[in-house]
Structures are given as structure tokens and as C-alpha cells.
């Protein structure tokens, strides 16, 4: 057995085991609290856009573009480490993540991607003018809602 | 003497049975309600969205989109059993072979083409208050949607609720013939009342039910247990919902709450359908919700 082969074999074993170890090693409560932070950051930026869309705040193209850019960046984050087994609403009192997420991970991921796309459309629209921003709010809300519809436990 | 008493008893039983039979007999719409100008499918698309038909009748796990496949099959749990939404697409398995009048009888009276009662999982008690022209438009729109050959699933309803005739009694108590909020409302709020009480059937989820499954009008829109078992459907009277009219209207169009959280659960589908209506209609619903008597949260 050559050295390079041993190295290759060893790294393959590590590569195969690492994601498992990571997924199992993450504390579900920590994952739950971190992904809630992600949601709150999205909420902060949507709030900036929404206040302008509802004309509660004067429209400012630069601020709107910044908020939409943040939202698109948050939407681009690979969330695989957030959604660890054992962190659903059945497992944790704090969690509103329905077990259906883990039963339909492909659909869940496609909804996450749909939100990212809506956020990128918002990024194009927000800095253009108020009417474009207002028009992009509907699809953005629809993207948020389509995931919350199936996968978020209603509030008590 | 005994013979006479027995005779009287039999007469009373027969009479009661006869009255009961009459009380529980399915009653279709009068011809005057069915006849009128032909339906306009484009207007009907808005009625269809306002009435939320697709939210329940679309095939499970599919998006509503612009031309939903109304194959049915979604399951609805209730204290009386589990109901399955039927196929209402324009196909032989759906309602494709029904006349306009037969569809309107189903929607507004809960009566099937063969003269049987439907269970009130279909909110015909609310649709009874719909404008017949809106219903003709709705039917015209329904006929433009894609057909599905999906066969209907039977309901899982145990005795005694399995006796459909009994639904006739429920209808005698609950089929609406007047608005729940009877006050004279300004034009906008009155339009909102039509959208919320008749087409939108908001009360079906947001109003608690009595022991027989009828809506408790004294607690109108005051919030109710969630039939899914998770949490409560919120109180949306001024006693529970403190949002401004503008905030309510914006939520109904985008799903965003004033804090920029979003609608979830069944309400997400309701919002995506209400988003198809003109702005004035969402503002009208908001105005109506402000005109409804406040139910204080303690009374929930």
C-alpha cells in the first residue's frame, strides 16, 4: 500500500464520517436558537423594506437596497447545519419547526430556495423605486408563507 | 282505553316522524336564485379566490397557482369524523357533468345532484348568503380549470353522524338567512361583511362551535381551538386583534404582520388567494373586522 493511497483512503473515511459526526455533534437546542436568530435577521431586514412599502417610512433607495441585499445574502446561506435531528417542535418546547421538515427535506429545501429567489428579485427591485419595492413584497411574503404554512407550528 | 292511548301514541310518533322527515329533507335553491345572466369566468376567478375554494379542494401538496387542479383528497379532522375534500374539477369524476343549478345547490344549499345532504365541512351555511350572480360567475370559472380523473375518497364519519339525513336538522339550525352582524354598515364595511361572512367564510375557523358543530354567533370571530390540535385560531375581533385597518389589509395581501412575521398554517393559503383580489376588497374586510363587536380575550 503506497503512502498516497493510504492518505487517500484515510481522507475518504474522514470525508464520509465528518458530516455524520457534525450532524450528530450539534446540540439541537443550540441549532434551534441559532436558526431562530437567522429568522430574526431576515425579519429585521424585511421590516426595513416593509416600513417603506407601507409608506410608514420615506422611501430611500440606498437603505432599501441595503436591506434587500442583506436579505438575499441571508437567503443564500446553506442551512444544512441548522436543521439537526432532534430539534423539532416534538423534541423541544421552544421549537416551532414541525417534524414534517425532516420527513420532506427535499420540499423544505426547495421552499428555502424559493425564498432565496424572491429575495434576489427584491434585491433588483428595492433600489429601483418605491413601486417596484411594493410590488416585490407580495411574492416575498408568499415565499415566507408557503414554508410557514406546511412547516411551522402555529403559535400557542 | 288502552287501544285509544296506543292509537294516539302511534299517531304522535307518525306525526313526529313526518315532521322530522320534512324538517330534514334537502331543499335546493328556488329557480329564481338560479336563473339569471350567464356567468363571467373572469369575474368568477375573483369570486373563486375570495371563497377560498382551492385552499381545500386542490390536490394535497400541490400549489394553487393560477389554474389549480381541484382533484380533492385533502383530509379534514373534526369532532364528528374525518372528511375528505371531493374532486370538483370539470371532469366526470368531478362536477363536469353537473348543471350550473346543481353546482349552485351544492355550494349554497349543501344538496347533491341526487338530492342528498352534504356535510357542513363544505361551508354552505356561509355561501348561502352569496350573491347568485357571483355564484354563476364562479361556476363559469370552475369550468375553465383543468380536469382531474381522481375518484373521491369516502368520509370517515361514525354513527350517528353517518346518517346524512340528520344534516337536515343541522341545516335548519345553521343555514344562514341573514348576516351575523346585522347592523347597517357603511358601504366599505358592508362589502367587507359580504366577503368575510359569505364568500370568505372566516367564521368557520375563527368562531367557536357549539356541541352540534354550529357556529356560536355570540362569540363571532372571537377565536377557537385549532381543529388540528395545535394552538388556537386567533380572535380577530377588535378585542383580540389590535392592528390598524391598514395593517390588516396589508397582512391579507402579503401575509406580513405589522412586525413582519408572516402568516402560517392554513392562513398562508387564505392570504395567497386573498392577494388576488383588488386592494379595495382587502380594505373592506379590514373595515368589517373593525365593525364587529369586540370579544374580550378572557371570554375566549
From TrEMBL, chain A:
A Gene Ontology molecular function term of the record: iron ion binding
A Pfam family annotated for this UniProt entry: Cytochrom_C_2
GO biological process, one term: electron transport chain
Annotated keywords: Electron transport, Heme, Iron, Metal-binding, Signal, Transport
Post-translational modification: Binds 1 heme group per subunit.
Any one GO cellular component localisation term in the record: periplasmic space
Species, as recorded: Limimaricola soesokkakensis
Binding positions for heme c per the UniProt entry: 144, 147-148
Protein's name in the database: Cytochrome c-554
Signal peptide: 1-23
Highest taxon of the lineage: Bacteria
Gene3D superfamilies in alphabetical order: Cytochrome c/b562
Automatic annotation (TrEMBL), chain B:
Coiled coil: none
Keywords of the record: Heme, Iron, Metal-binding
Annotated ranges, domain Cytochrome c: 39-146, 187-293
InterPro entries: Cyt_c-like_dom (IPR009056), Cyt_c-like_dom_sf (IPR036909), Cytochrome_c-type_DH (IPR051459)
Record flagged with keyword Lipid biosynthesis: no
Taxonomy, superkingdom: Bacteria
GO molecular function terms attached to this record: electron transfer activity; heme binding; metal ion binding
Protein known as: Fructose dehydrogenase cytochrome subunit
Organism: Limimaricola soesokkakensis
Amino acid at each position: 500500500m503506497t503512502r498516497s493511497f493510504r492518505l487517500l483512503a484515510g481522507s475518504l473515511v474522514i470525508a464520509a464520517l465528518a458530516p455524520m459526526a457534525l450532524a450528530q455533534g450539534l446540540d439541537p437546542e443550540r441549532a434551534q436558537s441559532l436558526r431562530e436568530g437567522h429568522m430574526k435577521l431576515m425579519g429585521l431586514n424585511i421590516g426595513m423594506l416593509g416600513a417603506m412599502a407601507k409608506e410608514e417610512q420615506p422611501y430611500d433607495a440606498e437603505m432599501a437596497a441595503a436591506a434587500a441585499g442583506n436579505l438575499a445574502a441571508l437567503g443564500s446561506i446553506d442551512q444544512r447545519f441548522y436543521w439537526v435531528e432532534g430539534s423539532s417542535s416534538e423534541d423541544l418546547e421552544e421549537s416551532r419547526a414541525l417534524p414534517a421538515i425532516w420527513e420532506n427535506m427535499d420540499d423544505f429545501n426547495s421552499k428555502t430556495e424559493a425564498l432565496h429567489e424572491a429575495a434576489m428579485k427584491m434585491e433588483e427591485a428595492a433600489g429601483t423605486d418605491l413601486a417596484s419595492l411594493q410590488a416585490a413584497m407580495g411574492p416575498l411574503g408568499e415565499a415566507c408563507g408557503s414554508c410557514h404554512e406546511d412547516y411551522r407550528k402555529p403559535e400557542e | 282505553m288502552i287501544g285509544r292511548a296506543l292509537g294516539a301514541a302511534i299517531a304522535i310518533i307518525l306525526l313526529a316522524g313526518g315532521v322530522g322527515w320534512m324538517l330534514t329533507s334537502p331543499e335546493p335553491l328556488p329557480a329564481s336564485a338560479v336563473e339569471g345572466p350567464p356567468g363571467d369566468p373572469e369575474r368568477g376567478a375573483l369570486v373563486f379566490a375570495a371563497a377560498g375554494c382551492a385552499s381545500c379542494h386542490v390536490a394535497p401538496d400541490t400549489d394553487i397557482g393560477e389554474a389549480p387542479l381541484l382533484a380533492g383528497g385533502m383530509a379534514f379532522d373534526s369532532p364528528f369524523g374525518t372528511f375528505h375534500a371531493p374532486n370538483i374539477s370539470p371532469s366526470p369524476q368531478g362536477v363536469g357533468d353537473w348543471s350550473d343549478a346543481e353546482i349552485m345547490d351544492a355550494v349554497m344549499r349543501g344538496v347533491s345532484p341526487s338530492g342528498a345532504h352534504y356535510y357542513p365541512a363544505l361551508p354552505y351555511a356561509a355561501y348561502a348568503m352569496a350573491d347568485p350572480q357571483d355564484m354563476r360567475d364562479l361556476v363559469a370559472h370552475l369550468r375553465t380549470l383543468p380536469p382531474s380523473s381522481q375518484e373521491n375518497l369516502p368520509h370517515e364519519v361514525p354513527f350517528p353522524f353517518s346518517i346524512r339525513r340528520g344534516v337536515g336538522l343541522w341545516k335548519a339550525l345553521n343555514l344562514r338567512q341573514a348576516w351575523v352582524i346585522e347592523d347597517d354598515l357603511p358601504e366599505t364595511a358592508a362589502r367587507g361583511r359580504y366577503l368575510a361572512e359569505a364568500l370568505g367564510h372566516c367564521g368557520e375557523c375563527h368562531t367557536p362551535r357549539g356541541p352540534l358543530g354550529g357556529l356560536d354567533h355570540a362569540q363571532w370571530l372571537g377565536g377557537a381551538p385549532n381543529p388540528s390540535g395545535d394552538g388556537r385560531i386567533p380572535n380577530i375581533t377588535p378585542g383580540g386583534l389590535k392592528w390598524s385597518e391598514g395593517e390588516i389589509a396589508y397582512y391579507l395581501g402579503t401575509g406580513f404582520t405589522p412586525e413582519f412575521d408572516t402568516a402560517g398554517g392554513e392562513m398562508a393559503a387564505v392570504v395567497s388567494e386573498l392577494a388576488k383580489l383588488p386592494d379595495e376588497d382587502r380594505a373592506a374586510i379590514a373595515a368589517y373586522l373593525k365593525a364587529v363587536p369586540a370579544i374580550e380575550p378572557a371570554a375566549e
